[in-house]
């Protein structure tokens, strides 16, 4: 499988470790060697927008990662540099507030702020980041930065914390500090999933299962539509509000459910007249998407990848028609992919509204798919596609240099 999906000559993040160490010393002083920590990106397989509705998700890590070179210092400073963005931020652990001028650094700052709230107080820290997770490709480079930061902070402070707590600290960094009202999908997957496993999570009970599997002749291909995700923040918040409104209308109509995810599929016809049409569509998506996650969980353990592909397609249609988190360009791309060789099924990756699709591919080099759809897509939209074949990746941790 690996040969079918090789992503060209791109350098892996670990090759930049010596450069991270020298940047750290050059920028923040020559006192002491750094240690290196890492965290992977994630790809969601099913469960679009179910997480903040206490629903079900199926996702995995990817074989792309964020690396951070980090060391403690004793003057209370919080120093960050991104080699990808060439952006340096000098802040303070004592007055650690969100700042739009700090860009990516708000993610590590948020994690350190939440850690301090949880009693993990650092004396000061230097961090230099590099990643091979493409930015804006729905592979959650931001949650990977958060996870790499918490690995570094806890590792350097020699402070224990369960995986479950780590995921929540990172999630609070994103929701409280950065300000996106997201669910737990990204942080939980990155911190709890493992290589060669899919992670199933019930976001209500937080019961999770690691399902071991190998893709054999299949792989996942993330395809960036080239349409920026500028709508994400506003549309995402709007959907969160719509789901809350649907829930409260149903409660007022006498349904004593704990969340939209507790609605059974057979109840849909009966609740339809009780909701405004748009809220009914949002609810139907959540209910049917949860069903798709349950179905996919079973087919992954049986390695019935053909069925998984058709569940991807059902998920895509539900996003397009009911949750409306697709976009005209994603719809064009989806239709082109439908007749491309090897494409077993395609769905909207991550939040949607631009960004990426993810396809399950059988036994075909991704370059052939690029050749089949790339030029046609550019002709129709004026945008250029980017292709990222992914495998599952290692869980977060320290990189020990032998
Ligand atoms: C983004 C959010 C997640 C989740 C997905 C949609 O990735 O960060 O919490 O809601 O969108 O499933």
Structure description:
With 402 residues, the chain is an alpha+beta fold. A hairpin with a 7-residue loop joins β9 (343-348) and β10. The protein is globular and about 65 Å long. It has helices spanning 2-5, 17-28, 106-117, 141-157, 163-178, 185-192, 232-252, 268-271, 277-301, 305-323, 328-338, 366-381, and strands spanning 35-46, 56-72, 77-82, 87-92, 125-131, 197-202, 208-212, 218-224, 343-348, 356-362, 386-390, 397-399. The strands form 2 sheets. Strands 1, 2, 3, 4, 5, 6, 7 and 12 form an 8-stranded mixed beta sheet that branches. A 4-stranded antiparallel beta sheet has the order 9-10-8-11. Alpha-D-galactopyranose binds next to α6.
Shape assignment:
globular
In sequence order, what are the helices and strands, one letter per element?
A: HHEEEEHEHHHEEEHHHHHEEHEE
Overall radius of gyration? 21 Å
Our measurement of the CA-to-CA distance between the termini, rounded to an integer number of angstroms, reads 30 Å
Residue-averaged pLDDT? 94
The fraction of residues in strands falls at 15-25%
Which molecules other than protein and nucleic acid are bound?
alpha-D-galactopyranose
Percent in helix: 40-55%
Helix-and-strand structural type: alpha+beta
Largest sheet: 8 strands, mixed
Catalogue the unreliable spans.
Answer: none
